[in-house]
Amino acid sequence: MQASTSSPSQPGGQSLYAALADWARTDGLVWIYLFKAIAAALLALGIAMKLDLPQPRTAMTTVFIVMQPQSGPVFAKSFYRICGTLVGLVVMLALIGLFAQQPELFIVSTALWVGLCTAGAARNRNFRSYGFVLAGYTAALIGIPASQHPDGAFMSAMTRVGEISIGILCSGFVSAVVFPQFTGELLRSNVRRRFSSFVDYVSAALAGRIDRSHIEASNARFVADVVGLEANRSMAVFESPDARMRSGRLARLNTEFMTVSTRFHALHQLMNRLRADGSSVTVDALEPYFREIAPLFAKAGEPVLTAADATHVSKQLEDYRAALPKRVRATRAELEAQGNARLLDFDTATELFYRFVHEMTEYTATYASLAVDTHSREKWIARYVPKTNLIAAGVSGVRAAIVMSLLGAFWIATAWPSGSTLVLNAAATCALASSAPQPSRMATQMALGTVLASLVGMVLTFGVFPHIDGFAMLCVALAPALAFGVFLTTRPKYAGYGVGYCIFLCFLAGPDNVVQYNPSSYMNDALALIASMAVSALAFAVLLPPSTPWLRRRLLADLRGGAVQACRARLKGLRNRFESGARDLMFQLAAIAGSDDAQRRDTMRWLFSTLEVGNAALDLRHELAALPAHPQYARGTAWRVAIDATLKAVSALFERPGEARYRDALAATVRAIDASQTVLQGMWKPDATSAAERSDTPPREERHLLQRIQSHLHFIRTALIDPQSPLAAYADSEGANARQPHEDNRGANHAS
C-alpha cells in the first residue's frame, strides 16, 4: 500500500495549513519581531564598533528604545528621536558653556529643562510626546557625563549623537526590509472593522436589540478606536506615499465618525426617553423610519465591508435623505390630524434622525473614497485635537525636576562615582514612565527588570566575554540574553520589566571598543540605575500621583468644560475641538479608572451628557447665527434673551454642577421653549385673508429655522431630566416634574 501524503487539499493538510496560518498571524509575529529587534541591535553594535565609536552600547540601547513591531511607529519614533536629540544637544551645549564651573547651577538648570520637556511630553500625544521626552533625556544623557570633562564636551556630544543616529538608522532599515509589518495595513483593517461594527451597532439599536451595558461597552470601544486611529494615521504617513495620499481623508473619517456616533447616540437616547415617558403615538410614527435604515447598509442583501462597495451604500443613503423631508411632513400631518401626539417630541426626533442620516451619508462617502488614490474629500483641514489638563502636565514636569534636583544634590554631596548615572537615569525614567497610565507601577517594573539585567549582565561581562573572541561569538553570547527581554516587551503585563531589562542590559553589559573589567564600577552603576528608578517610582506614588482622585476630578471638570465651551466659545472649529477633546479626556479617564467598573460607568455617563447637551448647544447657536436680519430676530428681543439665558445657565451647570444651578438651567430652558413657541405662533397665519396679512407671513424656511431652534431647546431639556444622566442626582421633585412646554399642532416639519 502506498503511503498517503498530506497536502493542503486533504483534510489533514488543511488542518495543518490552518494551524500554521493561525500561528503566523499570532505567535509567529512575536518571533519575527524578536528576530528583527535582536538583528537591529547587533547590526548597530557592529557598525558602531567598526567606526571605532567610544560607546557602541549606546547605539544598541537606542535600538530597544526605538524598535516597534510595525514600521510606522519605528519611523515616527526615529524622526522625533532625532529631533529631540538635536534639540537636547543644543540646549546641553549651552548649559555646559554657561555652568561648567558651577555644578549646582548646572544640575538645577538641567533639572528645569528636563521638567519642562516632561511637561511637554505629558501635554502632547503619540510620538510628538516622545520628541519632548528625548529632548529632555538626551540633554541629561549627553550633558551630565560631558560636564565632568568640559574641555571635551563638544566631541563627546558629537560621538553620542553619532551612536544614537546609528541605532535609529539600523532600527528603521531592519524594520522596513526584514519581514516588514506596515501600520497602513493595520489602519485599513481597523477602519473596515470600525465601519462594520458601527453599522451593526446602529442596526441593533434601532431594532431595540441592545441594552445599556452594551451601549456603554460599544461607545467605550468607539472612543478607543478614535484615539487609536489618529495615532496610527500619524504614524502611517511615515511609511509610504499611499498613506500620505489618504491622510486627509482618514482624518476626515475620524472627525465624521465622532459626529455621527454622537448624533446617533442622541437620537437613541431621545427615543428611550419618549418610550419611558409614554409617548407611544410619536414612537409608533417613527418606528417605520428606523426599520428602513438597516437595509440601506447592504448591497444585494450582503453587508458592505470594503471601501469600494461603500459607494453603493452612500448612494442609497443620499437617495433616502432626499426623499425624507416630504415623507416626514406627511407623517406629521397625520399626527396633527389625530390631535393626540406631542408634535414637539416628533419634531425633535425627526430633526435628529435627519441629521444622523445626513452625517452617516458623509461618513460613508468618505469611507468609500479611500478605495481610490486621490479624491476631492482629501481636502480636509480639521484634525483630531487632543486635550490634556495643564495642571496635570505641569505636575509631571515639577515632579521630574524635583527628583533630578534631589538626586543631583545627593551626587554633589557624596561625590559618588556613579552619581552621573543616578541623575541621568532618573531623567530617563521620569520622562518615559510619565506617559504610562500607572507611572509608579511602570517605574517599579523597570527597576525589577534592571535588577535582573544586572545579574545577567554580570555573568556576561565577567563570565562570558573574557572567554570569547570575535564579533560573531559576541553576537552568539548576547542574542539569547537579549531575546528574553524582547519577549517580555511583547507581553503587555510584563512590558515594563522587558523595557528595563533590554535597555539597561545594553547599558551595563553592552561592550565598548575598549572593554573595562571593573566589578566595582559595574556594581556602582547597577546600584545607581536601580536607585534612580526606585526614587522615581516613589516620587510618582507620593508627589500628586496621577491615579489619585484629584486628577480624576480635574479631568472630569475638563470633560464637562467641553459643554461650557460649546455654550460660550467662538463657533469656528469649535465642534471638532469639542468632539475630539471629549473623547481624548474619556480615554485618559478610562486609563485612570483601570478595572474599576463604577468609575468607568460614571465617566461614560458624563461623556454622554456632555456630548448630548454640548452638541445641542452648538446646533442651537449655529441656527441662531443663520437667522436673517429682521427686527423680530434681533438679539435684544425677549425670546433671544431667554435663549441666551438658557445657554448661560446650562454652561454654569456644567462648570460647577449643583442642585440650584440644575433648577436654574431647567427653568431657563423651559422659558426659552415657551418664548420661541410664542414667536412661532405669532408668525404662523394659516387663516390670513388679506394680501397684506399673507405678505407678512415669513417664508417656510424661516419657520423651519425657528422650529429647529425649538427642537434643540427641547432636546436640552430632555437631556437634563434624563434619569440615566449624572445630572439626575441634582434633580428634586420640582425639577423632575417640570412641566411639558406648551405645544402647538401647527407648523410644517423642519427636517429639510
Automatic annotation (TrEMBL):
Source lineage: Bacteria, Pseudomonadati, Pseudomonadota, Betaproteobacteria, Burkholderiales
Pfam families for this protein: FUSC
Alphabetical UniProt keywords: Cell membrane, Membrane, Transmembrane, Transmembrane helix
Transmembrane segments: 30-51, 79-99, 105-122, 129-146, 166-187, 390-412, 418-434, 446-465, 471-488, 495-514, 526-544
Compositionally biased intervals (Basic and acidic residues): 740-752
InterPro entries: PHBA_efflux_AaeB/fusaric-R
GO molecular function: transmembrane transporter activity
Top-level taxonomic group: Bacteria
Record-linked PANTHER family: BLR3852 PROTEIN, P-HYDROXYBENZOIC ACID EFFLUX PUMP SUBUNIT-RELATED
UniProt-annotated location(s): Cell membrane
Keyword Membrane assigned: yes
Chief site of localization: membrane
Name the record gives this protein: FUSC family protein
Native organism: Paraburkholderia acidiphila
Membrane topology, as annotated: Multi-pass membrane protein
Annotated stretches, region: Disordered: 728-752
Gene Ontology cellular component terms for the protein in this record: plasma membrane
